[in-house]
Design goal:
Strand order of the largest sheet: 2-3-6-4-5
Strand content: 35-45%
Number of helices: 4
Structural class: alpha+beta
Helix content: 25-40%
Largest sheet: 5 strands, antiparallel
Number of strands: 10
Distance between the termini: 14 Å
Shape: elongated
Length: 174
């Protein structure tokens, strides 16, 4: 079981002292997928000053956390974005916050607050869900066994997807 974002992609925007911050959050499940989206985002916002990001991927093959300040002062962008991801215990997520410089220097504290706020607002807009990895099973039963199977499924939080009634009962369980 793990937490991730509800939507595949969410975008949110904030303005801090004339600098525009565009936060994009994506559901990703591999490092390759995250890196591909980062490249596409860099092309999309080619005229932006910075495209800072953080991602966390956890699956059978990978357990990866990465971030980048993309030219901002060290520790003011990527690490705060990753901190939001970790604080909310979210996996399989990529957060990219793009900054268009507005002419006013924000300082390290201001940058940290702006990147944190951008990531937080987008995360809130995207929503968080818990996902459970499961296996789809089909049981072929006699009619007198259906009650027992339903009881066991209920006791173990196994979801009955469908039940077919023919000469036998076929129960599809997740």
């Amino acid at each position: 079981m793990f937490k991730t974002i509800k939507e595949e992609h969410v975008e949110a925007e904030i303005v801090e002292k004339k600098s525009k911050f565009i936060a994009n959050i994506f559901y990703v499940n591999t490092t390759e997928m995250a890196e591909d989206i980062i490249k596409k985002t860099n092309k999309k916002y080619f005229d932006a000053r910075h495209n800072c990001y953080a991602y966390s991927i956890k699956n059978i093959n990978e357990n990866v956390k990465r971030f980048s300040d993309d030219g901002e002062p060290s520790g003011t962008a990527g690490a705060p974005i990753l901190n939001i991801i970790e604080k909310n215990e979210i996996n399989n997520i990529l957060v990219i916050v793009t900054r268009y410089f507005g002419g006013i220097l924000l300082g390290t504290g201001g940058l940290t607050r702006a990147y944190t706020k951008g990531a937080s607002i987008a995360l809130k807009a995207g929503g968080v869900v818990e996902k459970v990895q499961g296996v789809d099973v089909a049981l072929h039963l006699d009619y007198d066994m259906i009650g027992k199977v339903q009881y066991v499924c209920g006791q173990n939080n196994w979801h009955i997807e469908d039940t077919e009634y023919t000469d036998k009962v076929i129960v599809h369980i997740l």
